[in-house]
Amino acid sequence: SHVATIWKNGLAIPLTGVMSYAKSVYVNGSDFYVAGREFDLAAYCASSWENGKATKLAARGSYAESVCFHANNLYVAGSTQNKATLWKNGAAVVLNFPAGAGKSEIHSVFADSGNIYTAGYAAIENKSNVAVSWKNGAYTQLTDGETYAGAESIYVSGNNTYVAGYDTYSPGKE
């Protein structure tokens, strides 16, 4: 079975003894933080690890995808019960999402100058998935829902916000 693991200078550090996945790592000084999920009672639960010590963030049906540490706060991004969720120091906040969205997830979190940026997708009723980014919880829909799209990573440099992801190519729609 899979076990959440990080590698430091090529040396494997297993984080748990149960079926699990590590999805993201962030290092601040000598401390390391990991986001992922552990298998518990026939379902995955969002988890984070600080220097190898596990914290279960949510119950069954939750996922943690990305982690960052900023201004003495730990941010973990993912989903709970198919809703985009951001945990700040273990406290969950379900983010706003476009009208008509049934399912949403966050795949990346980034913090800069006191602002928290996240990126992911929302499944819009009668449309395809749309790529979405959030700044301090307020969303921006990046695609129109005419093609299947999603955001996987976000980074901010100065006044520029960069989001990486995917969008299904449609001829004539460049």
Question: What does this protein structure show overall?
Answer:
Helix content is 0%, strand content 69%. With 174 residues, it is mainly beta. It is globular. It has strands at 5-8, 11-14, 20-28, 31-40, 43-50, 53-60, 62-70, 73-80, 83-88, 91-94, 101-112, 115-124, 129-135, 138-141, 149-157, 160-167. It is built from no helices and 16 strands. Strands 3-4-5-6 form a 4-stranded antiparallel beta sheet, with no helix packed on it. Strands 7-8-9-10 form a 4-stranded antiparallel beta sheet, with no helix packed on it. The protein has a 4-stranded antiparallel beta sheet with strand order 11-12-13-14, with no helix packed on it. The model has no long low-confidence stretch (mean pLDDT 92).
Write down the overall geometry.
Answer: globular
Task: Estimate the helix proportion, in percent.
Answer: under 10%
Note the quaternary state here: single chain
* Biggest sheet layout: 4 strands, antiparallel
N- to C-terminal separation?
Answer: 43 Å
List segments where confidence is low: pLDDT < 50 over at least 5 consecutive residues. Answer: none
List the total number of helices: 0
Instruction: Please tally the β strands and state the result.
Output: 16
Write down the overall mean pLDDT.
92
Strand adjacency order, main sheet: 3-4-5-6
- Helix/strand/pairing category: mainly beta
Listing every helix as H and every strand as E from the N terminus to the C terminus, the arrangement reads EEEEEEEEEEEEEEEE
